[in-house]
Design brief:
single chain; 464 residues
Length: 464
């Protein structure tokens, strides 16, 4: 009987522990993110080819840089960095009230970015770590943030002339915040279930799912402004976030639950035609013409310069979209000395070119060229498509015949894992971008898709 009880304890202990960490979140907070079992998942993530380049010594060496930094801090504080490694290998939580969370701002290749984020944690935010050595961990955090450490009324205070971080240890957890009151409140609600976030929102099943990252965001506290994609175009009840390494890739999925039923299927269209489109450069984009994305704004955002010029481009693209159908396709370079791009529109009727001519476009034998900033935009038809590009017609034809998206083996591999019908799809050759920016050989791809599943809007990213 005793052995049976022991087995049950071993099975349910991880669930009980994860259930505890969310108990620090007050019910009126707006969101939380938990990174679980990091010691288990880190090797899997670092084996993904893109992250292996970012972290490994044969690439950017971010892991080596971080370890060197912590070794120096450990020497000066006389605390082994292993104290921090042990804590980070477990579960840790970030929760906040007030500010919205933009997932794009969460990732950086600069270690100092995260140090500054910790220094400016916010007065209504909490970080919760599991540790058996809170005093030593606090000394390391003080060294990392370059803050002086003192203790007052069972509360550690890390401060300089500009910022302050407060910390308390409670039942195996170290809680940090930008205010003493937030730390005290987190500990207070831990022992009062009716005031906890998980009492108001059914999040414990989310937290205990098999995933490395899990998160919950009330209303419009979550932001995903990627490639002009606005996650707050509908009245949202809440978002959930999950992330999991899967074989050779990392998959992050955000689900958007709406407050009222909406016909979302009208925004869907088949992405199957995308694979037959040219791949010029390191970027490919496809979206439903009648979808929620402001495609004209997304295309106009490729240009930086006089506001009047950008407005002109926006107006022209908007006019083309009025006579377009199915999907718009965009391909080009995200970075490089000479950034190329081309947009393909499938037209329902002939486009009236008088508008372009009124802006000063001239006919160059089968193509109209409109002077824009330091270059031009070329407009011409190929088959049933209207092409808008900053290349000449001849240059575009050479580039488009050289390579199709279907020729990219990584895209074909990733595309099989995504629903064929979606609203927006973005594919980026990360390795090519890094090589063009840093001159270092790298491998990495990312595929993003926004689709609908049972009335829920899903944003899925897979990085390999």
């Amino acid at each position: 009987m005793r052995s049976a009880i022991s087995i049950l304890v071993l099975i349910f202990l991880p669930i009980l522990l994860l259930g505890e960490i969310v108990d620090f979140i007050p019910s009126d907070y707006d969101f939380f993110l938990i990174f679980k079992d990091n010691g288990v998942y880190y090797p899997k993530i670092s084996s993904v080819q893109f992250f292996n380049f970012i972290l490994g010594e044969n690439g950017l060496g971010l892991e080596y840089v971080t370890r060197s930094l912590l070794e120096n801090i450990g020497y000066s504080t006389r605390v082994s960095p292993d104290v921090l490694y042990d804590s980070l290998s477990r579960n840790f939580l970030f929760a906040a009230k007030g500010p919205s969370f933009d997932i794009g701002s969460f990732f950086s290749l600069d270690v100092n970015y995260y140090i500054e984020a910790l220094r400016n944690i916010g007065t209504n935010s909490i970080l919760v770590f599991e540790t058996n050595n809170p005093e030593e961990l606090i000394k390391l955090v003080g060294g990392i943030t370059n803050l002086r450490v003192s203790i007052s009324d069972k509360t550690w205070v890390l401060q300089d002339t500009d910022v302050a971080i407060f910390a308390r240890y409670h039942r195996g957890y170290l809680i940090l915040s930008g205010s003493r009151s937030a730390v005290e409140r987190a500990i207070d609600v831990y022992d009062r279930p009716t005031d906890q976030f998980c009492y108001v929102y059914p999040v414990k099943n989310l937290v205990n799912q098999s995933a490395w990252i899990c998160g919950f965001f009330k209303g419009n506290s979550f932001g995903a402004n990627l490639s002009g994609i606005n996650s707050n175009w509908l009245d949202t009840d809440y978002f959930t976030v999950s992330g999991m390494p899967s074989g050779e890739s990392l998959v992050i999925e955000v689900k958007q639950y709406l407050k009222k039923s909406t016909d979302l299927n009208k925004y869907l269209s088949s992405s199957a035609t995308m694979k037959n489109m040219p791949l010029v450069g390191n970027f490919a984009f496809s979206a439903t013409v009648t979808g929620p994305l402001d495609i004209a704004q997304s295309i106009a955002s490729w240009f930086q310069g006089a506001q009047e010029e950008v407005r002109k481009i926006y107006q022209i693209i908007s006019s083309i979209l009025e006579v377009s159908k199915d999907r718009v396709y965009l391909t080009g370079d995200v970075s490089g000395e000479q950034v190329r791009f081309a947009a393909l529109f499938s037209l329902t009727a002939d486009f009236d070119t008088n508008m372009i001519k009124s802006y000063g476009a001239r006919d160059f034998g089968g193509e109209l060229r409109l002077p824009v900033l330091n270059g031009f935009l070329s407009f011409f038809t190929l088959g049933k498509d209207l092409v808008v590009t900053n290349m000449t017609k001849e240059e575009y034809q050479k580039a488009s015949n050289r390579r199709k998206l279907r020729d990219d083996a990584a895209y074909s591999y990733l595309a099989k894992k995504f629903p064929e019908k979606d609203i927006v799809r973005v594919y980026v050759d990360l390795g090519n971008i890094i090589e063009s920016m840093l001159g270092s050989k790298a491998r990495g791809r990312v595929l993003f898709s926004q689709f609908v599943d049972g009335g829920v809007i899903v944003y899925r990213v897979e990085v390999m």
